[in-house]
């Protein structure tokens, strides 16, 4: 049985629109996510540099020793690093629409991909341990209990610098500058959460999926009638070509599908671990520390 | 009777342009709306955190007790939560061009959809009751009488922090920072109102609708002539395909139509209730409250 | 006589590009214009709210009575409303390339459309009378004589708040915040003027018009040859289809053409009068006035 | 000799992409250039208004007379007008890739077009004379000798207001606000220079040109084979159609080509002279001058 | 052997989408990179101009001589120039996905292109030597040892201006303004690094490459069947056309490929060396130096 090519090509127009739309929007989401993390890098460097230079004894009511002053600065910078890793951790918690949360086969494949070409490649330890390195113990326990730990870490920073302002270790100008950076961090965090928590609207995603399905279902009937013109043998020749075209269109659909959520922990995601480490290195170098950790290196061509 | 395919395909070009245009712009409106509410989240966190840390007795002319000070902060933060729910409520009031305001069948279907897969899923109470929780009684009655309550709530905040500045609970820097956040809230509110009150221009929406209608009307005549080539039986075979294609194109048109207005209270809208609650939780945790409400959970896969 | 379809379809590609381009850019101009007026709303609310809260006697060299203080605030807010209506008025002055300035028939039709479905629907009075309500008499006469009245109104505001600063009714922080809002208003005004005074570049608009003309001229010859295949009767059948397609393409061209200039005073324009009134209401409510004007209501489905 | 249509249509796809790309990007460059000059207008108004209102005797160490004070303000505002004309002048210096710098015929035609429908229409005098009107003589000679005069004019402004700050004619708030406007001017200048000095990348422009050339070269062979189906006479009929299509595609290519560089001094460019004059008028009216120059009027439908 | 055109044209749709996507995104990356460097220019001018005008003796605790003051300013401005060249240098370090890092032939050709039409055209010396010109010796050695030298140079600037603030050579307003410029520089640096370190996602680039490959592989079979209609001789005629089309599509693919990474050191890149020199000239002229270096001139039509 065969059908004319025309109805297939009309449906093809709808497929082309939605698959193209999905690819474009998925890329935009990915690229916006990367921009947000880029902005996190920039704000982090500004935070480290300003904290280091701004807090001084000069006008303080009860000046601190040099070591105490350094400890205050280090606490503010280390807590910032804690915020970074916390944010990364919160963004990796699966949402119901990500591949890992789907049924059966998809979840299984995704689990294997995460392990072999995703976050699983790096044994980056439990978040509690990481926070333990950068936060005092009691503070860690208190902060980790909140519903949104990252939010409350910044709230703690706000509170700390307000105290430094009260005790005149900061003047009004510097205080507001630092607070401005903290508010920027709230912006970056909120933007990353927006991309994580608001998927590509389901009506668009589903249209792409369904229309591609219909197209692929009808394709063989149309191909047969075309290849039949080559003679009887043509029908058999049509099979590899049909398979090839199906593969191309399913690939297009899947590229959109896997780029859509840039915080899934898979190989095409934003390399958050690597970016956190880049910042950690820059900040520790600013503090003049001796033990600078190594940058994250790509494993099997995958950077996380 | 049958007609050649050519004139249909030329009209198809116009259909493709406008349906694609409508889908793209509708998505842009939806995504911008989500960005605006994301910005509301970020500004809200900054507001809570700064209010908590900024207001101090140190330079005040007549210092308050710790409890009074806390009460002042809590009032400012609770009034902000009142603003959130008020804004949501104002954005849900139907406009004349939304589906609920249309005639007969469309309105009926929309009402059912709102109840079963939209705002109706959540018994979120009357706005008066919600405001009663977050505003003093007399203030609530006064504010609710204004034509645009949300605008006047922020005006009240402006007035309050100006008074705190006068009495030196805030210095000039902090005052202007807080005022800056309030002005940002005016921006967010105005942007959300812009999307609500300025629909996709009717000339574009109507072109999409009319051209799709013409296309679907002409489609069967063109399909018959194509399928006729398969023999007499072909004409009958054309029927399911015509129906399928019509379904695809009507679906495309409807996807644009229902994404266009992201504050209608239907299942594809911005989940404003959920976002209000997220902020409420963060702010109450900042205040150290004991009774933290639960986050809004998706019902039937719909998050409002 | 008939010609093959091919050359027509190649020209059709050029038509599709330019008509699509024109529609897209015209929509972008319209939407940007709406965003600018949305920003005017936001800045206006911030202006009203800040003026009301900021100006105080506390540090003033020669304090005013409560009534005098209120009068000062009211003058600043009323002058702002005057700026709004002036800006609207300036944006409605026709430019040489708008439809009202064209020859003969187009101008006549446009005049009728303006009267029946445009600005003519609202008897909004002469701008002099409106300004008389919001400005002192001598100031009105002076300001109206300038080449760009709106610019000089803001200059007057700048001058007034600088004086308030000198006399210490404002501190430096508040002064700069208010000045910042005035500079934002210059931005909004300049952006609106940019859209008004820089049309869609003529080379693009003309290409769209000319190529559509060529396409429509050649269309019948191509259609005849296609329909001729249905038999002799086919040539006659081609007529209604040719007319339909021409209508579709002329409609597309016109949609772009009439969306292009969003400040012409026609039905698809930015509803500036309505927005001015919305702001007027909000500001008067902030001032606690008793006689709040009604919002502008749509007439015949048209909101100006 | 004739060839099948297919290979031509495949190349046509590449042509469509690059010609469309070039048109879109050229328009974006033009529109961004207009936005930048719009921002220059806005910043200029803010500069004039703020300079006029900010500089006061009140806290000055050695107060000036009213006339001296006015002279200081006028100098700052006039020097700004000098900057405007200097910027325009610098942007009109031809780059190696503009039409005027090309060989033989193109340069000759461009020179004629500049004279008849471009900058040549306005005898706007030598830049030295214009600067002579707005700058003191010694300053003019010094500034004009720099490699980038516009940059150094703003540097001079920076220096002047810093001095006014030192002598307490400005407080810290006002000083920083004025400096902020100067930094914005650096931004606007740099953005305009970016568009001037970084053409549409050659690889894209060349692809558009070459592919269009191949397409137009192959077109006649394809057209002949199509028209041949109409009978022997058809071959001759194909000639006018081939010419028409070539004209359409060359026009498309040229529209992109001439919109690409918006500061060439040709008729479709940004009307910089007119914008400079608009600002000059606004600023002179702010200064209360008596001799306000006329606005630039369009000549032969061309506004420069 | 020959196959029908249809399956090839369906794959052609996928090719068109991805090749077009790659070209568009590559251009966006290139243009964003140019914008970032444009912003570097603007911030650099502001830095030079503000440093020169802001630092004064007036309120200083222990005033410096004029020469000492000038030396301080010169150090800050020269260190900024060092930052520029350092940033350029860091952006030119090859990443694993750039052409120079690929295997065999591609790397060899790229090396030759870099030498003949890329960075190799300019003997711009070792970065150590350049830094030696603009930094004190001990500082140079210390800064160059950091993992990210550019970051730490700005940290040094932050530290220096904080010291100047402490010693009251700067007031609070000016200090924060200068710090704001430094934070902007962190933004620019981070944005450039984002483009350098986050390539066009591999899933998109690979799809473009693979689908083009399949298309080009199938093309001859389809062309033969088309040209065969011209008679037996036609098969031979199809060869040059097939080659031509392959060349067009490979060119399209390569244009995207080479525009994608705008900091590779090849001829279509951002002319960073030239921009660094432009800034160096402006800043040295601001300092009133006598030996102003020449601007970089294009060699063989290539500006680096």
Automatic annotation (TrEMBL), chains A, B, C, D, E:
* Membrane topology qualifier: Multi-pass membrane protein
- The keyword Ribosomal protein is assigned to this record: no
Tell me the GO molecular function terms: chloride channel activity
Q: Name one Pfam family in it.
A: Bestrophin_2
Q: Does the keyword Nucleus apply?
A: no
| UniProt-annotated location(s) | Cell membrane
Chief subcellular site? membrane
What keywords tag this UniProt record? Cell membrane, Ion transport, Membrane, Transmembrane, Transmembrane helix, Transport
Any single GO CC term annotated in Swiss-Prot or TrEMBL for this entry: plasma membrane
Q: Where are the membrane-spanning stretches? A: 6-21, 204-221, 233-250
What InterPro entries does the database record attribute to this sequence?
A: YneE/VCCN1/2-like
Of which family is this protein a member? Belongs to the anion channel-forming bestrophin (TC 1.A.46) family.
The name under which this protein is listed is: Bestrophin
| Source taxonomy | Bacteria, Pseudomonadati, Bacteroidota, Saprospiria, Saprospirales
